[in-house]
Amino acid sequence: MDYDTVEAGAFGASLRGIGLNILVRDVRGHVAMLEGVFAMRAHQATRDFAILRYGEQVFQLHSDATYRENPLLGLLPESPPRGAGIEIRLYDSDPEEAVARAEAAGMHVLQPPTEKPHGLCEAYLLCPDGYAWVPSRPL
Description:
By secondary structure, the chain is α/β, with parallel strands linked by helices. It has one domain (8-138): 2,3-Dihydroxybiphenyl 1,2-Dioxygenase, domain 1 (Roll), CATH 3.10.180. Helix content is 19%, strand content 33%. The protein is built from 3 helices and 8 strands, in the order αβαββββαβββ. It has helices at residues 8-14, 27-38, 95-102, and strands at 21-24, 41-43, 49-54, 57-63, 87-90, 108-115, 120-126, 132-138. The strands form 2 sheets. A 4-stranded mixed beta sheet has the order 1-4-3-2, covered by helices on one side. It has a 4-stranded mixed beta sheet with strand order 5-8-7-6, covered by helices on one side. A hairpin with a 2-residue loop joins β3 (49-54) and β4 (57-63).
């Protein structure tokens, strides 16, 4: 599928399995951050929407404005953090490399690269909307 040209209806109909859609205040800012820190690839990025690829995985960013008619919008807090309790785990990202780029991209390093008993080295990076992005690699 050509994510740069696919129309909304065809894209939506193609989605399978579990999907990730993240509501953010600044789509373009998040795109720049995710491309810079995790080398993700953005498609059709506008101020309201973007398709992102991380390896073979596809997910979406939406601005709050696109959720005007969605009941979820009313549940979002006025102030961050929004994403408390969710970890977005990136198993193919080196935590040391991600941490080295994170602060310059506007992320807060909540936990530096740490070897964990479950066999991964991982870091916890918070984006401006409060979502925890967790780059991980096997020990």
